[in-house]
Design a protein that fits this description.
Number of domains of chain A: 1
Shape of chain B: elongated
Strand content of chain A: 35-45%
Largest interface: A-B, 14 and 10 residues
Helix content of chain B: 40-55%
Number of helices of chain A: 2
Distance between the termini of chain B: 45 Å
Radius of gyration of chain B: 19 Å
Shape of chain A: elongated
Structural class of chain B: mainly alpha
Largest sheet of chain B: 2 strands, antiparallel
Radius of gyration of chain A: 16 Å
Order of helices and strands of chain B: HEHEHH
Number of strands of chain B: 2
Strand order of the largest sheet of chain B: 1-2
Number of strands of chain A: 6
Structural class of chain A: alpha+beta
Oligomer: heterodimer
CATH class of chain A: Alpha Beta
Largest sheet of chain A: 6 strands, antiparallel
Strand content of chain B: 5-15%
Chain lengths: 138, 130
């Protein structure tokens, strides 16, 4: 059943939102950032969906990335964006399990790793990406 | 009681293992090309980004660097087919896959694509544990 993808997305986005690190600009939702005010931009990228076992109707292993772009004001040094990135990494630390109630059941999205990459300047923002690897058996 | 292993026997076994490993690395790189070209195709607008993707022997950072300015919209199928053919030729030109390979994109706007459109390198790292 491929309809699990939106549940995985909600689980990850809810976890990010609940951490209250900074305002979140969700994918494909209009967001007008205020210049100088930091914000986070999550990008949900499923990569694989493979049978976890052999046989009929096997359990599936879903894997993917949850990318969070940490946007901070340009020209103020890297600390603000780094600090956002650190908070995101702490929220999605490796081996963290995220339980999410879909309404009919509780799913568990597990975090494999969270890693930060080099910052990039894209005026008026300085952006530090954090890549979070996730998986779930369903 | 004793077991004696001949040097020639050991050498043959080592060569066999190496051959298997070589095939595995080749297949992994070939799977990466398929992933980018067909399974989860890269985004194509002007074709400059996919036209700047290269697969080289490890450490070789050469390849086309196509800018998007002044280019018309490209046919995604054609652009992806070209990329697939170029990357496969690059893979086949690697003498020994066990020496490693480098996949590089030298498009001037590659950073922008990776940041705002799609970071395929992060996906490949995630999928293949690189």
């Amino acid at each position: 059943m491929s309809s699990i993808y939106h549940h995985i997305r909600r689980a990850l986005e809810t976890e990010l939102d609940d951490a209250s690190i900074a305002p979140v600009a969700y994918e494909n939702v209009a967001y007008s950032p205020t210049t100088g005010t930091s914000f986070l931009q999550p990008v949900f990228t499923p990569t694989t969906r493979r049978p976890a076992v052999m046989g009929v109707s096997p359990q599936q292993l879903y894997t993917g990335l949850f990318r969070v772009l940490c946007n901070a004001a340009e020209g103020n040094g890297p600390n603000a964006a780094d600090s956002l990135a650190n908070s995101v990494i702490d929220t999605f630390e490796a081996t963290t399990d995220i339980d999410y109630n879909t309404g009919s059941e509780t799913i568990k999205v597990s975090i494999r790793y969270a890693e930060k990459f080099a910052g990039t300047l894209d005026a008026p923002w300085y952006i530090v990406p954090v890549n979070i690897g996730w998986y779930i058996y369903k | 009681m004793q077991i004696t292993v001949r040097k020639a026997q050991l050498k043959a076994k080592t060569e066999k293992s190496k051959e298997k490993a070589r095939a595995q690395v080749y297949n992994m790189l070939s799977d990466m090309i398929d992933y980018m070209s067909y399974e989860n195709p890269l985004p194509v607008d002007t074709g400059a980004y996919v036209g700047s993707m290269s697969l080289n022997p490890r450490g070789n950072r050469s390849g086309p660097a196509k800018g998007k300015r002044g280019r018309r919209k490209a046919d995604p199928n054609m652009a992806l087919n070209d990329m697939e053919a170029r990357l496969t030729a690059g893979l086949d030109s690697i003498e020994d896959p066990l020496d490693g390979a480098t996949i590089i994109n030298k498009a001037p706007h590659a950073k922008e694509v990776h940041l705002y459109v799609r970071d395929v390198f992060a996906e490949l790292r995630d999928m293949y544990g690189l």
